[in-house]
Backbone:
């Protein structure tokens, strides 16, 4: 009886034995049996058959996690969440300007801004109670018009992007040349918050100012439509009462309209006159 005839006769028995072991024979089994002998009958290397589960697992692992060259794909680093703004550093390692309720912080003020020098850059952090945009302008005269403006805009995709604008009168024109880098932004709890850097010194340009000089800071925020800014929320946005220097870390609080007190001499005079009139009124 030839060898091929014997194998064919024993094939049903091999199937039963393999089924009891939980391994289904395949044509590769015959190749593995033959691998025990060389082409001319001399002994060769015996390869152990792998069970179907381990074979599937190894093939899946190789196809899913190995590159064409057989090396594992690098694992992507985890995405760091937006680091909260630390107000405890205000007036110490960075300057801060708050607008809103007394005692408010970066998450509760109507508007919040911080600045600090990092090498040849200035890092800014901004936050405002809005679902649209928040911005700061650098002005030489406390008025809108001819101002360099950096804004953080919340778009329809949920992202917060940094934009560069130039005030033309009461209108903010977006400028393609954007000096911002290392941009971060988040929209959370109905607040737009962002962080970015821009160089201290820039080439001479009408739309860009040198931040090593002192400027009045204009503060504004408002709604956005499809990632484009619209008019700011309040008619007269707040402005710093003095020029701000990035070399001086101040912690400035500006009460919003609802918390402003009558502390100007004119207001006090009006209050005294009104009180006198009420007290001395006709009987």
Residues:
């Amino acid at each position: 009886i030839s060898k091929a005839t014997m194998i064919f006769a024993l094939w049903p028995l091999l199937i039963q034995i393999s089924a009891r072991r939980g391994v289904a024979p395949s044509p590769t089994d015959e190749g593995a049996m033959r691998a025990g002998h060389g082409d001319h009958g001399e002994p060769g290397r015996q390869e152990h058959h792998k069970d179907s589960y381990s074979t599937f697992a190894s093939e899946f692992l190789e196809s899913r996690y190995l590159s064409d060259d057989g090396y594992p794909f690098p694992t992507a680093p985890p995405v760091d969440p937006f680091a909260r703004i630390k107000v405890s550093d205000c007036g110490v390692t960075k300057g801060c300007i708050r607008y809103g309720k007394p005692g408010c912080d970066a998450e509760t003020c109507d508007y919040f801004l911080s600045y600090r020098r990092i090498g040849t850059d200035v890092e800014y952090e901004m936050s405002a109670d809005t679902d649209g945009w928040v911005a700061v302008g650098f002005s030489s005269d406390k008025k809108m018009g001819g101002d360099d403006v950096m804004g953080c805009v919340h778009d329809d995709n949920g992202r917060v992007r940094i934009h560069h604008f130039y005030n033309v009168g009461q209108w903010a024109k977006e400028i393609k040349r954007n000096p911002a880098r290392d941009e971060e932004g988040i929209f959370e709890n109905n607040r737009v918050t962002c962080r970015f850097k821009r160089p201290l010194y820039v080439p001479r340009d009408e739309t860009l100012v040198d931040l090593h000089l002192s400027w009045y800071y204009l503060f504004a925020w408002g709604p956005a439509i499809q990632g484009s800014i619209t008019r700011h929320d309040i008619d007269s946005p707040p402005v710093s009462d003095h020029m701000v220097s990035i070399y001086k870390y101040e912690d400035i609080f500006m009460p919003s309209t609802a918390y402003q007190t009558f502390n100007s001499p004119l207001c006090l005079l009006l209050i005294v006159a009104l009180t006198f009139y009420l007290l001395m009124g006709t009987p």
Q: What stands out?
A: Confidence is low (pLDDT under 50) at residues 23-51, 60-68, 71-79. The longest strand covers residues 160-168.
